[in-house]
Amino acid sequence: MTLSKIPTLAALLAFAGCAAETFDKPAPPSPPATPGFYASMAKPGAKIDAQGAAEMISLYRGNHGLEPLTVDPALMEEARRQAEAMAGADKLSHEVRGSLTERLNRAGFAKSKAVENVSAGYHTVAEAFSGWRDSKPHNANMLAPGMTRMGIAAVYNPHARYQVFWALVLTN
């Protein structure tokens, strides 16, 4: 190797060492994830955090000496159907698909004790929960003794007056 190439080679090795150093540095920490109960349901394809909702409502129930709730897939489906029917009709109603008893009987929950909250206009689980908590009849449903299973749904209809329709079903 000629003496004239040594400075060039040294410079390349030094640059390579710097480049390797850059790649060895740890990535900056990711920002903390937003809890699912703050996710907006006011957009197409939004997915509700049912487990987060169950934990929130169960904690509230526990603070009142009541049993926790578990997410039930069949009740999730029933809540989704009710929320879809309300969103499609642009109407907030417990009766849009028949009474709660009729609907639960059709879904295989005959003789279950059950309560239901419906609402519209809230964009997040946290907002819906707060609205239900602040309403005496809705709060009584969330604090109904003996309830152990739940289903919850939010359906978005951008053409409806309230845009997001909610259904919460609790059973024993």
Task: Explain what you see.
With 172 residues, the chain is of the alpha+beta class. The chain has one domain (39-171): 3-Layer(aba) Sandwich (Pathogenesis-related Protein p14a). It contains six helices and four strands. The radius of gyration is 26 Å and the shape is globular. The protein starts with 5 loop residues before the first helix and ends with a strand. The model is unreliable at 9-22 (pLDDT under 50).
Shape: globular
> In terms of per-residue confidence, which ranges show pLDDT below 50 for 5 or more consecutive residues?
9-22
The CATH superfamily name is CAP
> Can you summarize the main beta sheet?
4 strands, mixed
CATH class: Alpha Beta
- CATH architecture label name: 3-Layer(aba) Sandwich
Which sequence of strands runs across the widest sheet? 1-3-4-2
Portion of residues within helices? 40-55%
Subunit arrangement of the protein: single chain
State the domain count: 1
Helices, by number, come to 6
- The residue-averaged pLDDT reads 87
Keywords: Signal
Organism: Rhodoblastus acidophilus (Rhodopseudomonas acidophila)
Protein name: CAP domain-containing protein
InterPro entries: CAP_dom, CAP_sf
